[in-house]
Amino acid sequence: MTLLTASAGRARHHAVTEPRRLGGVRSGQHAFGDPSVPDIASPYDEHLTHERAAKDAFFRGSANSPIPMRDRAQFDGLAYYPVDRVWRFEELRLTELAGDADTAFKIATSDGGSRSARRLGALTFPLRGRPRTLVAYDLGSGDGSLFVPFLDATSGTETYGAGRYLDLHPEPDGTFVLDFNDAYHPYCAYSPDFSCPLTPAENRLPDRIEAGERLAVGEAR
Fold it and tell me: Would the pTM of this model clear 0.85, i.e. be above it?
């Protein structure tokens, strides 16, 4: 069984899908170990296009791809919503959680198990004129990054029903950029051979987040 680490956002390592297989790359690293993929040097849209193409190539041809071998010949790339900077929120600061939320807890996983996690704080951002908040977690990455899984009004129809993930790394000034264009599906969306953290109910948004990775039209999971 493969445990994944937040895995994959650009394949992403972060805290998330453990293997049963461990998969992923975190932002700030070269995608899929390919040094030809730029970190942040390209213009925004070009960078995302290049990174997504690299991810498709990884899924199609890597021995570590989450796509089952029998399906790889038919794999023609991941589906995404159009890139739009309206879904990018900069200069966010992690704030203390309100109430009596336990810092340490067990986060449920897709294989019926659980793993240790910590609530690190909350990120609040304006969405269509209303404040929205997502809790950030630590799954033991040890690199200062935040694991931010979320559910929204597209979950289960246009996007994976168990949610999508974001991996955030601090900016030099200690703030964070939350960019839903980077939202990605965990590896368990492609194969039951992976065990992925399930999104806690506290991170369910009432809005449609039409950004980042989505299911192909007509596909529901």
Answer: no
Question: Which residues in the chain land under pLDDT 70?
Answer: 1-42, 100-101, 218, 220-221
Tell me if residue 24 falls in helix, strand or coil.
coil
The amino acid that residue 49 corresponds to is: T
Angle at CA 51, nearest 5°, toward 158 and 65?
70
Residues 6+ away with beta carbon under 8 Å from 84: 181, 210, 211
Per-residue model confidence as pLDDT tens digits over 66-108: 999 999 999 999 999 999 999 999 999 999 997 766 799 999 9
Residue pointed to by tokens 């897709």: 110
What would the DSSP string read from start to end of the chain?
A: -EEEES-BTTTB-TT-EEEES-----TTS-GGG-TTS-SS-S-HHHHHHHHHHHHHHHHHH-TT-SS-GGGGGG----EEPPP-GGGEEEEE--BPPPTT--SEEEEEBTTS-EEEEEEEEEEEEEETTEEEEEEEEE-S--SS-EEEEEB-TTBTTTB-TT-EEEEE---TTS-EEEEGGG-B--GGGT-TTEE-BPPPGGGB-SS----SEEPPTT---
